[in-house]
Design brief:
Layout (H helix, E strand, L loop, with lengths): L7 E5 L3 H11 L5 E5 L2 H11 L3 E5 L7 H10 L8 E5 L4 H9 L3 E4 L4 H46 L4 H10 L13 E6 L3 H7 L2 H22 L2 E6 L2 E6 L8 H6 L1 H6 L17
Parallel strand pairs: 1-2, 1-3, 3-4, 4-5
Antiparallel strand pairs: 6-8, 7-8
């Protein structure tokens, strides 16, 4: 149901007296009533007014109530629009009304209280459906936005450090990369004895050491909010305070990060061959 205060009900009947009777029953209970005198007009009013419920006569010239209901159900926008068939006919017509897609059937002459009860019941169901639909739409939009952000981070991550990629996505533009001046602290390190180490070990051991070294760098970069200048083999360059400003940039570069790398976590017999970074 729409967010308007008064639910809107479309009354469709080719007999003016019947239309006025339904208006007299519904209007005092706070319903906004719009009308149509035939099937073709009813479809036009549905598209223009977007009612919350339709009270539909069956027997009308040219386009009857069955055809109107079938067309409403065939349209995605009105597939769940509540429809109550109102007619003086009974028997097989009730079955045909349900088969055409009607939600309910009320024979004429109708009981006013019964009509109002069925209207309220179907409007309540429509309100629940609209609420769920709105929640699903909101969820879909959020998921779509998050997927787009993740994809953008992934693409930026091919060329930029994680901090910069995240900052660009969060800001919504690339203004963070514009030319500017700022004091930065730069840190460079590589593994001592790397060249001789490479010549003396198997490829599997070499890759294990590199993987451990890179993993250590990754953890420290995130912990101390560094920006990766380059990470190549056993060499790494980091800088601090740009493009994201951080306090105590020199201390972060010299004390915690350097101390962590001065004790490399290399396992096995190769500890003595690769003792520190320079």
């Amino acid at each position: 149901m729409s967010e308007r205060e008064q639910p809107k009900i479309l009354v469709v009947d080719d007999i003016p007296e019947n239309v006025r009777l339904l208006e007299a029953v519904l209007a005092p209970h706070g319903y906004d009533v719009v009308t149509a005198s035939d099937g073709a007009e009813a479809l036009a009013v549905v598209e223009a007014e977007q009612p919350d419920l339709v009270l539909l006569d069956i027997f009308m010239p040219e386009l009857d109530g069955y055809a109107v209901c079938e067309r409403l159900r065939a349209n995605e926008a009105t597939a769940v629009l509540p429809v109550i068939m109102v007619t003086s006919s009974v028997g097989e017509d009730k079955t045909r009304a349900i088969e055409a897609g009607a939600d309910d059937f009320i024979p004429k002459p109708f009981n006013h209280d019964e009509l109002l009860t069925r209207v309220r019941s179907l409007l309540r169901i429509k309100r629940y459906h609209d609420t769920i639909k709105a929640l699903n739409r909101t969820l879909e939009e959020r998921v779509e936005t998050q997927v787009e952000e993740l994809e953008r981070v992934r693409q930026l991550g091919r060329f930029l450090s994680p901090q910069i990629a995240e900052a660009i996505v969060s800001s919504g533009d690339e203004s963070i990369l514009r030319s500017h001046r700022r004091e930065v602290a730069v840190f460079f390190a590589d593994l001592r004895g790397w060249t001789s180490f490479v010549d003396g070990v198997e490829p599997e051991e070499l890759l294990r050491v590199l993987r451990e070294f890179h993993n250590t760098i990754g953890r420290l970069v995130q912990r101390f909010e560094a920006t990766v200048g380059f990470l190549e083999g056993d060499g790494v360059q980091l800088f601090f305070n740009d493009p994201i400003e951080i306090p105590d940039a020199p201390l972060r570069a010299v004390r915690p990060v350097a101390q962590a790398w001065l004790r490399p976590r290399l396992r096995g017999g190769n500890r003595s061959r690769l003792r520190d970074v320079r």
